[in-house]
Design goal:
By secondary structure, this protein is of the alpha/beta class. The chain is built from nine helices and eight strands. Helix 2 packs across helix 9, helix 5 runs parallel beside helix 8 and helix 7 runs antiparallel to helix 8.
């Protein structure tokens, strides 16, 4: 009996995982290593899970990593674990929902490091696991995952250091937020077309879409709004992150040589972390891989793209 489509897809994913595991064992050559210990990478939500692993891998490649966390106690402990492993990691408290916290962090970063070269927006929340699809915390999910990411990008762009290879922004996102996926896509065709058109895409349009969703949640009408049906609030927040990534790639494309900033997003997969209730099937080390790869790409003329397992996927 032949294999069904799900079994074949599972086999392809497993093969790709094995390929990436092999790629991770191949060290960067000297001519590929554009970074040094002076290269500064900021990772939000770095105290656990994917954020902790991204911090560890970047530091293991020889960069200086600023690990941030909303909770100072757990952030300090996470940084200490990495420091005890001989890695160059510093900690600073950061709440991406608090404009004052972001300003304090930006001022400290500028005073102590002169800015940054890499920003990894990993801080995010999700309250649903398994088959749950509660929207009780929709406002908080959208505020953290989308508006928090947006606030960090806006605050960090002026601090990104000039370089010949370009600064990098990596947004941790999800395929659950894909516009045109076969499953879980936005049912409102007009909105889908508006968000798909990168030339007419605007911050106002993205903000209005997520604000409409939150308003419908609070009015109890969201189920008829054509929103994704799986982990709806999380999916909408990541849909917005994906759209904002494409928008910012267009906005930043006008920057002159030597001051380029490249921005991309990626899906880490269903990772075994607290966010998934430890129900994921991918270890954090693998979930972090594509984010680290994007941050360190030697020839980073790639911007405004969406990746998974080191491969570009459609929005």
């Amino acid at each position: 009996m032949g294999k069904n489509a799900n079994e074949k897809a599972k086999e392809r994913r497993e093969q790709r995982r094995q390929e990436i595991s092999l790629l991770r064992t191949i060290p960067y050559s000297d001519h590929q290593r554009w970074w040094s210990a002076e290269t500064i990478a900021v990772v939000t939500g770095g105290n656990r899970g994917i954020g902790f692993e991204i911090s560890r891998q970047l530091a293991a490649h020889g960069l200086t990593v600023i690990l941030t966390s909303r909770d100072s106690n757990v952030g300090v402990e996470a940084a200490k674990v990495l420091q005890e492993g001989g890695l160059n990691v510093a900690f600073h408290q950061l709440d991406v929902l608090d404009p004052l916290s972001i300003k304090h962090f930006a001022d400290w970063l500028h005073q102590n490091y002169g800015g940054l070269d890499i920003l990894v927006n990993n801080a995010g929340i999700n309250f649903n696991v398994g088959t749950d699809n509660s929207v009780e915390n929709a406002r908080m999910v959208v505020a953290t995952n989308y508006f928090g990411t947006k606030s960090m990008i806006e605050a960090m762009i002026p601090l990104m250091k000039p370089s010949t290879v370009g600064a990098r922004i990596v947004n941790v996102s999800s395929r659950l937020g894909r516009l045109n996926g076969r499953r879980n896509r936005v049912g409102d065709l007009t909105l889908r077309q508006q968000l798909s058109d990168v030339d007419s895409l605007s911050e106002e349009l993205i903000d209005h879409a997520v604000s409409t969703f939150v308003q419908q949640v609070e009015e109890g009408t969201w189920e008829s709004g054509g929103w994704p049906q799986t982990f709806t609030d999380y999916s909408v927040s990541k849909l917005a992150v994906n759209a904002f990534t494409r928008l910012m790639a267009r906005v930043l494309s006008d920057r002159p040589e030597g001051k380029k900033i490249y921005i991309n997003c990626y899906c880490p997969g269903w990772v075994k972390t607290a966010m998934t209730g430890y129900a994921g099937n991918i270890p954090a080390e693998e979930g972090a891989d594509t984010g680290v790869w994007l941050a360190l790409l030697p020839d980073q003329a790639i911007t405004g793209k969406f990746f998974a397992e080191r491969r570009e996927v459609s929005f």
